[in-house]
């Protein structure tokens, strides 16, 4: 049985390798915190870094392999706190921090009838 937490830890470690850190920094600089540009510049680099690690564990070395890996991780997140934690760390490496708009009556989003 594949030890998913080990693979996740290896993927996270790959992001801190000097050459990958430079690639990610360049991609983030090009994206300028714009979500559309993040998808254009950062996501492909992050996908390539993941592919380089997970291919050693039998996942195909393409986008489909990364999607299968992501689905497998997602399926275990609720059952295994270690996998959930590692998954969160991985996502934080390539997704910008998201600020959620305020919700509820205090947010001023209600419209008075006129």
Automatic annotation (TrEMBL):
Keywords: Cytoplasm, Signal. Its main location: cytoplasm. It is found in: Cytoplasm. Pfam families: P_C10 (PF14974). Residues 1-16 form the signal peptide. GO terms for biological process: post-embryonic development. This is Protein C10. The lineage of its organism: Eukaryota, Metazoa, Chordata, Craniata, Vertebrata.
